[in-house]
């Protein structure tokens, strides 16, 4: 990751936001690295949000005999279980297809909960 530089005013503003100093005071050297780390993490989080693609609705899903699935003209790249699919057709709007994907491993991540120590 490239070296990131922050101005004193950015560091002071973040320190005030974090409650490290009062407005107008300067950041003590012992706390400066923690404040800069918070600024770096803030930039990283913003960069991750910018990179996250917006979810889109498929234009067309075709379920072929034998279970092959074509989404917007492209074959679905993952294995699908040979179990019944639930297909909900809605001529008035968006239809739905419910299917079971096969995976060697599944991981469910919970959002990070801010701890009391992070605000210090």
How would you describe the overall organization of this protein?
- With 120 residues, this protein is an alpha+beta fold.
- Helices cover 28% and strands 12% of the residues.
- It contains two helices and five strands, in the order ααβββββ.
Describe the structure concisely.
28% of the residues lie in helices and 12% in strands. By secondary structure, it is an alpha+beta fold.
The amount of beta strand, in percent, is: 5-15%
The oligomerization state is: single chain
What average pLDDT do the residues reach? 83
Per DSSP E runs of 2 or more residues, the count of β-strands stands at 5
Low-pLDDT windows of residues:
none
Radius of gyration: 24 Å
- Widest β-sheet, arrangement of strands: 1-2-3
What string gives the helices and strands in order? HHEEEEE
Overall morphology? elongated
Percent in helix: 25-40%
Number of helices: 2
Strand and helix map with partners:
Layout (H helix, E strand, L loop, with lengths): L7 H11 L10 H23 L9 E3 L5 E3 L2 E2 L10 E3 L7 E3 L22
Antiparallel strand pairs: 1-2, 2-3, 4-5
Structural descriptors:
3-stranded antiparallel sheet; 120 residues; elongated; alpha+beta; two-stranded antiparallel ribbon; 28% helix; 2 helices
């Amino acid at each position: 990751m490239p070296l990131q530089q922050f101005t004193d005013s950015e560091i002071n503003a973040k320190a005030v936001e974090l409650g490290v100093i009062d407005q107008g005071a300067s950041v003590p050297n012992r706390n400066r690295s923690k404040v800069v780390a918070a600024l770096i993490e803030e930039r990283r989080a913003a960069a991750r949000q910018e990179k996250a693609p917006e979810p889109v609705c498929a234009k067309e899903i075709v379920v072929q005999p034998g279970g092959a699935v074509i989404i917007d003209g492209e074959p679905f790249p993952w294995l699908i279980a040979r179990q019944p699919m639930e297909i909900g057709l809605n001529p008035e709007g968006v239809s739905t297809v419910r299917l079971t994907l096969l995976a060697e491993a599944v991981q469910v991540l919970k959002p990070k909960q801010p701890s009391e120590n992070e605000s210090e």
